[in-house]
Amino acid sequence: MSGGSWFTYARAQMSANADPAPVADPALDPPPITMTVDVEDHRPAPTWEARYERCTRRFLDFFEEHDIRATFFVVGRLAEWSPGLVEEISRRGHEVGLHGYRHWAVFSYEPSSFAAETAKGKALIEDIIGAPVVGFRAPAGTIMPSTFWATEILAEVGFEYSASVLPAQSYVVGFPGVPATPFRWPSGLVEAPCPAFAVGSVGLPFMGGTFLRVFPLPLVRFLVGRLPARSTPWMYAHPYDIDTGEPFWVVPEVKRWGSVLLWTNRAGMLRKLERLLVGRSGPPLGERLRALAGDLPTFVPQRADEPPGRGDVVEMLHVALRRERIVRDVSPRNGEVTVASRGTDAPPSRPS
Ligand SMILES: [Zn+2]
Question: What is the mean pLDDT for each group of 10 consecutive residues in the chain (352 residues)?
């Protein structure tokens, strides 16, 4: 696709019609926003009730009501446990991508085991939906300088795009220096970076999850308006973000105050999504990025072996502690692990 933006694509589609039609002007019209859902299990232990199926279906009903087509990144293990849910997501008109075979940070894998599990997750979803799976989202956004190797593997196992990278520094993840607009990794894999805004040197992924539940809507709108030109804005949510029926528990990785934030304003989440998306929702990421694919810059990291940028000493310590905790919790090399970065690796003991 020549020209290089969603609007150019839209223009080309319009000019293909017989009737002359007014063309979209990217300087005047804000880009559409694509909705994404990370379908993951949030239980601390397998004996707890699994609630992701009912919440995912609530998203499906909400999207149908508002004529929104989304991309659902599904954890491979959940596709094994709930193939009917994955089939339903696809049948109701949405794209299905992979959110890791397990919900484990990419940096907790060796490249060879990451390749094997990622290919396995891709194949099992393809078997369920009968169509190629081309999109990947790394659990917790853990494609970062130290896991740059994953962008090679994702292309090798057949993914066309990733929507995994925070184009900034943050406490745990982030890939400082990558473009904030879609680009290609040297492997050819397309990346649609997570929309973020900077507070000092730290980037906040404000268009989803806890940020979206906690931030006032006018602030989110203001920040969306400040995204760079040629952005491909996407929002993100998890089943638990709309789960008003889940009893409160302290999520060990984020302690009590972080857990309070995880439960804040779940009741208002769908209303916020409605206010931001209705009239402005774009197609699923796979379709959208394919339309841009011929005209994307390639980003070559200069220092791929270094950790994310560091701020002051307190922040360095925070990064070190937080990162150590996540590695310990999610490492597949640690046989005693059951809790994997806010989620369990055991099938539901009863259907949700
Ligand atoms: Zn996730």
Answer: 38 39 54 97 87 97 98 97 98 98 94 97 98 97 94 98 92 88 97 92 92 96 92 96 95 89 97 96 97 92 54 42 40 32 50 41
Q: Which residues surround ligand 1, an ion (CB under 5 A)?
A: 38, 40, 139
Distance from Cα 344 to the centre of ligand 1, integer Å: 12
CA distance 132 to 127: 9
According to the model, what pLDDT value does residue 327 have?
38
Cα 337 to ligand 1 centre (Å): 17
Hey, what are 208's tokens?
């989803």
Distance 40 CA to ligand 1 centre (A): 6
pLDDT of residue 349: 52
Interior angle at CA 12, CA 8 and CA 16, nearest 5: 170
What's the CA-to-centroid distance between 139 and ligand 1, angstroms?
A: 4
Residue spans per domain, the chain: 33-330
In 144-163, which positions are buried (b, 16+ CB within 10 angstroms) versus exposed (e)? Answer: bbbbbbbbbbbbebebbbbb
The alpha carbon of 51 and the centre of ligand 1 are apart by a number of angstroms equal to 15
Question: Contact 203/244 with Cβ under 8 angstroms?
Answer: no
Q: Under CATH, domain 33-330 is a member of which superfamily?
A: Glycoside hydrolase/deacetylase (3.20.20.370)
- The pTM assigned to this predicted structure is 0.82
pLDDT at 345: 58
CA of 164 to the centre of ligand 1 (A): 10
